């Protein structure tokens, strides 16, 4: 079942090119336009949406963070992302023009299910993005967009996360197509880039030995920090969560811009800091700002582990270690940038002799509130 891998988590990390490819499969027609037949929400409703609220927990919520950047950019619809258990116990402002997107691998997470009920009671339409066929959340939602990651066994989510992000991109591109906020050829270009992602993920996996070697050497570190901006921020949060979950190491993810507002006080001689560097080919100041952040922590003694694009030489002088990922448009880059962090956590947990697939105190699906 583990296909020769040491753990289900390792197997599932290696399943990721297929998880993304399968989630994209069959969702375009002969002209290259997106067809999401399963969205049984009427097109007129989808056209009139004036707000999207993503509700989810844990890793699934981080996929929602990525969705916010992409959907707002492509569709010009405001997107809020909220932990389902927080949403559930407040008085959210929902109307018939609000689309609530509930993201869940298992489809059984009680916190998310309760939030779905809460949203529907107040008249919002709920679209579920779920991996498990026939589970409860899709049954209680207005429509479902399935991720096709296949069954995920390891408690720590990996391939489901990449499939969730992929499904969010499809939703965003579909809404942009429907609402005409992007030209058809632009949409086709982004879709084309997205279709190149499975091979790029495979390329990162092919280079995993270097990541594993560093993880083994760092197995006794007591704490790690993770920094990112824009879509690199949810990647940082996810990298930290993986390390906490399976390696039981204190790890915190920050928006890199927050550093000087507090967290930089944590940085001391030898503190390992992962930094997710955005593409230097992006149009804005993003890359430049992140390079400054790397310099800032390095100047205070941090050991910097930088995830950077191939060909990005600007990070090299400030990075103790660089993990390379293929060149990818910024909005799509989480699909490659998170992979070295998953491998790192898995290898580090293994080096500590821990059960990678069954971390203490955690269950695969959290069916109690
Ligand atoms: C992290 C992890 C959890 C789940 C969360 C939501 O590796 O597995 O944070 O992502 O419990 O679970 P689902 O997606 O099943 O609703």
Automatic annotation (TrEMBL):
Homodimer. The active site is at 364 (for fru-6p isomerization activity). This is Glutamine--fructose-6-phosphate aminotransferase [isomerizing]. The chain holds residues 247 to 615 of 615 of the full protein. Transmembrane segments: none annotated. Keywords: Aminotransferase, Cytoplasm, Glutamine amidotransferase, Repeat, Transferase. Residues 41-181, 214-359 form the SIS domain. It catalyses: D-fructose 6-phosphate + L-glutamine = D-glucosamine 6-phosphate + L-glutamate. It is found in: Cytoplasm. It comes from the Bacteria. The keyword Transferase applies. Catalyzes the first step in hexosamine metabolism, converting fructose-6P into glucosamine-6P using glutamine as a nitrogen source. Its main location: cytoplasm. It is an enzyme of class 2 (transferase). Its EC number is 2.6.1.16. GO terms for biological process: amino sugar biosynthetic process; carbohydrate metabolic process; fructose 6-phosphate metabolic process; protein N-linked glycosylation; UDP-N-acetylglucosamine metabolic process. GO terms for cellular component: cytosol. One of its GO terms (molecular function) is carbohydrate derivative binding. The keyword Transferase applies.
